[in-house]
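Project standup — Tuesday

K.O.: blocked on the structure for the chain from last sprint. Re-posting the sequence here as requested.
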Amino acid sequence: MNDNLYSDVLGNGLVRRDSLLRRIHIDMPLLLMLVLILGFGLLVLYSATNGSFNEVKRQATYIGLGIIIMIIVAQVEVRLLTMLAPIAYIGGVGLLVAVMLFGDSTNGAQRWLDLPGLPRFQPSELMKTIVPLCLASFLGSRALPPSFMNVVKSIFILSVPASLILMQPDLGTAILIGVSGLFVILLSGLRRRYIVSVFLIGLAALPLLWLFVLKEYQKKRVLTLLNPQSDPLGAGWNIIQSQTAIGSGGVYGKGWLNGVQSRLDFLPEGQTDFIFAVLSEEFGLFGVLMILALYLCLIGRGLYIAAMAPNMTQRLLAGSLTLTFFVYLFVNMGMVSGILPVVGVPLPLISLGGTSIMTLLISFGILMSIHTRTNIYAQS
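H.V.: unblocked you, prediction finished:
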């Protein structure tokens, strides 16, 4: 057999030559599901932007760049990524501080950096990958379940970027980053008494969060969730129009480019946070179930990769990235359908947004790197 070909060592002693895709560290099921979701997302985005080819072209450019970066990341061993995690964390926090000092503002939020020679980007999106990577590196190299001091250190690591992002203000991204870090801590085998203690502390802190942290418009969003009709032309407008779009889609939808709420501009932010409502109106229950099936297959594949990972650091990282993606999806669909407050979380891989797309694809590149190096290789 050719010495340049890698082989899987099977349990029965047989040797199988490895596929080209595995040798270049591409997980085909993961790639196929990503391409299907991204391609479908471009169709929905074209409709949500009222046929703006420029927006779709820009999104497609980010997708192409993101896939290239994903493949590059997949070539890098996770061991090297975890070694670089502290440097990435410090750099990410530095970018968040830079946003506070001289970031661009849009709609009252200061979240973007516009550096010379670089496209405008949102540094908080990068922390969705950097925080779990840093925490997995930190906890995975220590005795588990983690000691009390290691739990405290981990909470500090995730609270610094989450607090900076909350000040932008960007409640949705701060929640997602906090959740991504908490998943790493929980998956590390956190003792039950610590979980109960954190839960009780969180409950006790809710009044303080309401009084001193949440902005007035964020409080109004929470109150509007309970009764959108209390302010139908103000804070309740988004939820009412979104629910109308979802309900009017029926079983098979009104057809691509035939959505009323989005085409007549009744639906706000239809290309970003509320694009799921556009999808529901035009493709109906059938289209929603189809995209949900793809999402669930993607999440299932990620959990399988986490379960098969060769060491604790990689299990924590893969599990956290996958579960955070699930929360990402759940929060957006919950907010658009009116069961969660509007917190500004886009639909993953579909909503307009270049930094978000590339960050998610980097995460999937890490999953590919983990999975394609899980099996034992031998040259023969």
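K.O.: great, moving the ticket to review. The two ends are 6 Å apart (CA to CA). The longest strand covers residues 6-9.
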